[in-house]
């Protein structure tokens, strides 16, 4: 099916708000859910005037890759600036750089070696971060809907990503794993559904950065939340 479980959606939205990319590549767009998330929370959410809502005001360069042409309809054509048709592992080589590359529920459709190679390719083409979502403990199966691009061929877990220096991993509701692979020199996103996750400036920024450096973003955020009595997400 050209869709996936919804568990990671708020976390992806929050990551996008933290990273503030100006260009995004969505690999295996399917129905286009993550394209809508990009448009809503990067281009529409901060509009100051209802007249800014129109497509001509959208700022983010949003492109997608999709191997199943039958899934691409005017719906996705409207949301994405460009959809590259074909297999991601081949298409990616002729594409440029993107601040964020995301791939939702596609990794499990690859054999393990091919999947690892694709992640390395995506990482090379990312300026800031690669976000991967997939079902943990995925069971292999045959073609779904008669589409070979929908077969489950591999299972992935945290250990598959530990070779990446800046890696964050979280499983939501036991149903969706989300991985953020951040490029050196970029601030990793906190894998939280909270929209409170944002970079702070001034003295608050100095305190936040020191806390995150000393104890990591997750522990710093829970300490700040306990001290203030409200949900605080520190991203450094
Ligand atoms: C399970 S759907 C997920 C769709 C969407 N990313 C989401 O999370 O809702 C997987 C999508 O990836 C596409 N896909 C599978 N293998 C692919 C490949 N090698 N290159 C590009 N797209 C692929 C499928 O055609 C399908 O649209």
Describe the model.
- Helix 1 crosses helix 2 (33-44) and helix 6 (202-215) crosses helix 7 (217-228).
- This protein has a 7-stranded mixed β-sheet, with helices on both faces.
- It folds into 2 domains: 9-189, Vaccinia Virus protein VP39 (Rossmann fold), CATH 3.40.50.150; 196-236, no CATH class.
- The model has no long low-confidence stretch (mean pLDDT 91).
- It contains 7 helices and 7 strands; from the N terminus they run αβαβαβαβαβββαα.
- By secondary structure, the protein is α/β, with parallel strands linked by helices.
- Helix content is 31%, strand content 19%.
- S-adenosylmethionine binds at residues 2-4, 28-31, 33-34, 65-68, 71, 87-89, 104-106, 109, 149.
Principal-axis shape: globular
**How many strands appear in the DSSP assignment?**
7
Instruction: Output the helix-strand order.
Output: HEHEHEHEHEEEHH
Q: Give the bound compounds.
A: S-adenosylmethionine
CATH topology of the largest domain: Rossmann fold
Number of domains: 2
What is the typical, i.e. mean, pLDDT? 91
Per CATH, the architecture of the largest domain is 3-Layer(aba) Sandwich
Q: Evaluate the radius of gyration.
A: 18 Å
Please identify which CATH superfamily of the largest domain we are dealing with. Answer: Vaccinia Virus protein VP39
Specify the biggest β-sheet: 7 strands, mixed
SSE inventory with pairings:
Blueprint: H1 9-19, E1 23-27, H2 33-44, E2 61-66, H3 74-79, E3 82-85, H4 88-91, E4 98-104, H5 112-124, E5 126-134, E6 166-172, E7 176-182, H6 202-215, H7 217-228
Parallel strand pairs: 1-2, 1-4, 2-3, 4-5
Antiparallel strand pairs: 5-7, 6-7
This protein binds S-adenosylmethionine.
S-adenosylmethionine (SAM) binds next to α2, β2 and α4.
């Amino acid at each position: 099916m050209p869709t996936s479980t919804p568990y990671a959606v708020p976390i992806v939205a929050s990551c996008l708000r933290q990273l503030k990319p100006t260009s995004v590549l969505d690999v295996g767009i399917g129905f286009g859910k993550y394209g809508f998330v990009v448009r809503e929370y990067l281009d529409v959410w901060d509009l100051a005037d209802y007249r800014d809502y129109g497509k001509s005001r959208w700022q983010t360069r949003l492109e997608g890759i999709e191997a199943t042409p039958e899934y691409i309809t005017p719906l996705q054509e409207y949301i994405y600036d460009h959809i590259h048709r074909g297999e991601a592992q081949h298409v990616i080589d002729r594409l440029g750089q993107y601040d964020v590359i995301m791939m939702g529920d596609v990794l499990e459709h690859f054999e393990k070696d091919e999947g690892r190679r694709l992640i390395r390719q995506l990482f090379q083409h990312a300026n800031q971060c690669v976000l991967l979502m997939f079902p943990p403990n995925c069971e292999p199966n045959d073609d779904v809907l008669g589409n070979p691009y929908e077969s489950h061929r591999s299972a992935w877990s945290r250990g598959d990503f530990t070779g990446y220096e800046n890696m964050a991993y979280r499983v939501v509701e036991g149903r969706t794993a989300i991985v953020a692979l951040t490029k050196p020199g970029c601030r990793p996103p906190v894998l939280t559904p909270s929209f409170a996750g944002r970079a702070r400036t001034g003295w608050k920024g100095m305190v936040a950065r020191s806390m995150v450096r000393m104890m990591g973003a997750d522990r710093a955020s829970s300490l700040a939340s306990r001290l203030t009595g409200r949900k605080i997400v520190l991203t450094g």
